[in-house]
Design a protein that fits this description.
Layout: E1 19-24, E2 30-34, E3 47-51, E4 58-61, H1 74-85, E5 94-96, E6 116-118, H2 126-136, E7 143-145
Parallel strand pairs: 3-7
Antiparallel strand pairs: 1-2, 1-4, 3-4, 5-6
């Protein structure tokens, strides 16, 4: 006999693992599922694709930084879809910083060999999304279909 699940998810499959957001680009649903642990959170990783529990279509892995637009915001979801389908779901993107930006090399903080800065903010319009995709196309992540 199966034990009943409580609020922490004890007794459910995947209980105790990190839950991560998935977004369906067709029905605009957002839900959480456990994913394979690969170490750090919010770093680029292969974009997992799962089945949406609402409509059965594909749902893409998103970062915990992803803030979804309201279901009725078609333009907002179009931007999300463009970025996600280009392989740039809402994970943090970092770019190399030129060492000259930090001052003289003898004055660099210890331990900095390849300084990076976080790219942001994410685009809010389709025109901004197209420019963002063109600028960061080299950082696109592959899609991996997984089912638990």
């Amino acid at each position: 006999m199966a034990e009943p699940a409580d609020k922490q998810g004890h007794g459910q499959p995947g209980a105790g693992r990190q839950l991560t957001k998935f977004a369906c680009l067709d029905c605009h649903s957002v839900f959480k599922r456990p994913v394979a642990d690969i170490g750090k959170r919010n770093v680029p990783r292969p974009s997992e694709v799962r089945r949406c529990p609402s409509c059965g279509s594909d749902a893409n892995l998103m970062s915990s930084d992803f803030r979804f637009p309201p279901k009725s915001d078609a333009k907002g979801w179009a931007v999300v879809a463009a970025l996600t389908r280009a392989g740039l779901p809402y994970f943090r993107i970092y770019e190399d910083m030129p060492l000259t930006a930090l001052g003289h090399p003898s004055q660099l903080p210890k331990g900095i060999f390849s300084p990076k800065y976080r790219v942001g903010p994410r685009p809010e319009t389709m025109a901004e999304a197209k420019a963002f995709i063109a600028r960061h196309r080299d950082k696109a992540m592959p899609f991996v279909r997984t089912e638990p």
